[in-house]
Amino acid sequence: MKRVARRQFVLSAAAALFAAVFWLNLPANAQTFSSSYTSTAPKDCRTVGKSSDPNGSARQVCPGKSGLIVLISADDLRETVSVGPSQASAAKEPAAEAWFAPFNSSAHTIEWRAVDGKPFAIIQRWLIADNDHPDKTGNPTTKPMLAVTRLPPGPVCHVAYIDGQANRNANELARQAADQFARDFKCGKDEVKVVGEKGTAVSLAKR
């Protein structure tokens, strides 16, 4: 019995020592990543400009996170999405000029990627029109793509594209891309990254 008790004591002490060493070797500045969500549905946004033409230009301002707003601009069945502390600042960001050539639209949910509670990137699903593969009615089909956009401080621009059809784990890949690349991405110098398998949507967006 004494040998068993002694052996259990030694094992417990070893386990405690391992745990202590493990926690001591964790980085003191370990960061916590998280996601939260906002809506860009028309009912949740404010229209700030609209053309009389159904396919003409329109702008909507939507609530974001940490004092930031989301600016959605639409013109000729194409959209841009930018972010800033105000409508004026968001309109001047590179993201406000990041048009895709095919017809497109953005989904109404934005994922805000944050570290220690401070957002540094957004992830949004887009539908890109594929004119080469029309549906039964002759209209172009749409292909899903996720776009990762970096946030201030610094310019707001697209960082990475993830094809939503070619990658089953597209959401996970988008979060990884945001966490790894967004904060150090240099808008205007670094090329937008294609993460995962490159499918039709990304090919259309990068064309």
Which descriptors apply to this entry?
four-stranded antiparallel sheet, alpha+beta, single chain, six-stranded mixed sheet, 4 helices
Characterization of the model:
The chain has helices at 2-24, 87-91, 170-182, 200-206, and strands spanning 33-39, 46-50, 58-63, 69-75, 78-84, 104-115, 118-134, 140-150, 158-163, 193-194. It is of the alpha+beta class and 207 residues long.
How would you state the average pLDDT, rounded?
87
Total DSSP helices? 4
Shape estimate: globular
The percentage helix is 10-25%
Q: What profile does the largest beta sheet have?
A: 6 strands, mixed
Question: What Rg is obtained from the alpha carbons, in whole angstroms?
Answer: 23 Å
